[in-house]
């Protein structure tokens, strides 16, 4: 209420995104896994339920003041994003054609599911979104749905191969363009 968010968040990381050694030395390092949405000072408690070389499972209790950014009578809510997210791989300028294979930092399977309850005096400005694309480079799914004051957000990106053939690069571009679209990485809400 009034820009304050309180809730619980769970995260599962695998492969290159899993900072196993850093967390083995200091479990508190899990509080620095997010690059957007909330920061380490917003995490009031955490529980690491699994920390293996290729798998991490952790749950967080979040409390963040001023979660909304106000501009011209609208409020913007940036959705959380993990540091290992493909959005941070500098793939914003993928050419539509390529003659050589493209090597990615790793394969990736990212899945964000969020449920947000808006205060009764707020409403979502952007209509519901449902996008699903599957091609030879992988798959992307974006869903934003509102039922009453409850918002359900689903963001999923799977890149199946670390090395893409030249003919797959345009399909990677299609997936990344949807994944990086700022309209799907933030919510625009307004007071009623």
Structural overview:
The protein is mostly beta strands. It has helices at 20-25, 169-180; strands at 5-14, 34-36, 43-52, 55-64, 68-71, 74-78, 81-82, 102-103, 108-117, 122-124, 129-135, 138-147, 150-159, 163-164, 186-191. The strands form 5 sheets. It has a 4-stranded antiparallel beta sheet with strand order 5-6-15-10, with no helix packed on it. The longest helix has 12 residues, at 169-180. The protein is globular, with a radius of gyration of 18 Å. The mean pLDDT is 84.
Strand order of the largest sheet: 5-6-15-10
Q: β content, as a range? A: over 45%
Annotation, overall tally of beta strands: 15
- Arithmetic mean pLDDT: 84
């Amino acid at each position: 209420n009034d820009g304050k968010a309180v809730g619980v968040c769970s995260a599962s990381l695998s492969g290159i995104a899993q900072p196993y050694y850093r967390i083995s030395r200091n479990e508190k390092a899990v509080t620095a896994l997010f690059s957007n949405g909330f920061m380490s000072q917003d995490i009031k408690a955490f529980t690491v339920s699994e920390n293996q070389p290729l798998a991490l499972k952790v749950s967080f209790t979040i409390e963040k003041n001023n979660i909304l950014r106000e501009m011209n009578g609208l409020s913007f809510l940036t959705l959380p994003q993990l540091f290992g997210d493909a959005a941070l791989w500098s793939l914003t300028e993928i050419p539509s054609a390529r003659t050589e294979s493209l090597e990615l930092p790793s394969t990736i399977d990212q899945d964000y599911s969020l449920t947000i309850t808006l205060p009764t005096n707020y409403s979502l400005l952007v209509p519901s979104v449902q996008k699903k694309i599957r091609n030879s480079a992988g798959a992307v799914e974006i869903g934003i749905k509102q039922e009453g004051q409850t918002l359900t957000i689903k963001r999923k990106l799977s890149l199946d191969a670390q090395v893409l053939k030249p003919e797959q690069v345009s399909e990677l571009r299609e997936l990344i363009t949807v994944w990086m679209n700022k309209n799907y990485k933030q919510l625009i809400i307004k007071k009623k």
